[in-house]
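Subject — a protein and its fold
Encoding — discrete vocabulary of local shapes:
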Amino acid sequence: MFTPIPRSGLAAIVRDDVQDARRITFPSRHRALPCAAIMIRAQIRFGSLTLGAIPRVVGVVSQAARLAQLAAGTDRDCDIVEVRLDLIGPHTPQWLEHAQAIEARGLPVIVTIRLAEEGGQWKQTDESRLPLLETALQHLTAVDIELRSRLLDQVSALARRHQRALIISHHDFAKTPPLDELKKIISAAANYGTVAKIATLTKTEDDVATLRALFQENCSAALCVLGMGPLGPQTRVEFPKLGSCLTYGYLDTPVAPGQVSARELMQLLRPT
């Protein structure tokens, strides 16, 4: 369990809402998608929402009891719900029904089954996730799959078939790689999904600056960038202002270094 970060350590931002933009097409599987010097932010349909118009807060659910509460309740501490099925457990009764009930309330659902080597708790084979991911793509808004997964081609094809959003994620819990390496990662991710997600360990201001530079890149996929570790909390408020389409906070307990609560992020990103 990670220690929540106090609100006093974060800076609030004000963001004007804008009209929903057009839906972009799913990227071609083998078409090269280079990055350019000026950021053109992709805007895509994501269930009932548009990503890229304003920053969206993803509330992460890691406990079965909280998932059931969200399905039955009316609270809206986030824009999107991520169901961490590797933490909740794929055999949790009615997890799919609960997720569908959440979507019926207007909150799109992402299903994530994070591999252990990517910071999750899924210790079975990579391939054993495929039936669960296919079920999610048949019935819910989106799934998250790691760029390094052996399932990448198959899950990308399933997302196309079912016309669902697909987050392609890359995590580095040891460091923030050089900018050129990160550019190659987001370009590769854009070939497979609709959102390219980068999360790296940020220990220095130089690390944050490297991640910040990604917002000067033009990629066809929507871009989500997060810092983890000591300087992670500031990125979860600052980067949405720069163009990160998603920022993540917990709904029950932190599941990543530097993660703050979704409720706090909503307060900071939706000031009254």
Q: What stands out?
A: The longest helix spans residues 179-190. The chain has nine helices and eleven strands. Residues 33-269 form a domain with the TIM Barrel fold (CATH 3.20.20.70).
